[in-house]
Amino acid sequence: MSRAAKPMARRGANTRPQASGSARNRKIRPSRKTMTSLWLALMLLFFVEALFYAWCRVQCVNAGYGIDLETRRQRALLTTRNHLQIELARLKAPERIESIARTRLGLVMPNMQQTVILP
């Protein structure tokens, strides 16, 4: 045999199939490319989850700011309503209406002959 043929013969001799018992005991390792892909997928999933969590927190904080703004607005509107109710009560006071009728309009209270009682 030639030199080139000898290594071929040796490789062929070493690569014969193993017995079925030892083949079952041997662990099959995933390739390096598969492990890298798996880690990249897990890191990408983790990154997406972190972004989603951050987005949720930002939305929660924005909702809190919105609630606070509307609460302050409601308080201001309630204060304005209370002031307007007080002003309305002051404007509807019978004493005020009577004084305006006498001074500005020149009206007087009617006497008994000027009143008509309806049946």
Task: Tell me about this structure.
By secondary structure, this protein is mostly helical. It has a domain at 52-104. Helices cover 72% and strands 0% of the residues. It has helices at residues 5-14, 20-25, 32-91, 94-103. It is rod-shaped and about 125 Å long.
Annotation field: number of helices: 4
Round the Cα radius of gyration to an integer and report it. 48 Å
Question: Which sheet architecture does the biggest sheet show?
Answer: none
- Stretches with pLDDT under 50, minimum 5 residues: none
Amount of helix: over 70%
Mean pLDDT reading: 86
Overall form:
rod-shaped
Counted beta strands: 0
**Which structural class matches the secondary elements?**
mainly alpha
Span from first to last CA?
145 Å
- Percent of residues in β-strands: under 5%
> Topology as H/E string?
HHHH
Key words describing this protein structure:
mainly alpha; 4 helices; 72% helix
Task: Describe the structure concisely for a colleague.
This protein has 119 residues and is mainly alpha-helical. The chain is built from four helices and no strands.
Task: List the SSEs and their pairings.
Elements: H1 5-14, H2 20-25, H3 32-91, H4 94-103
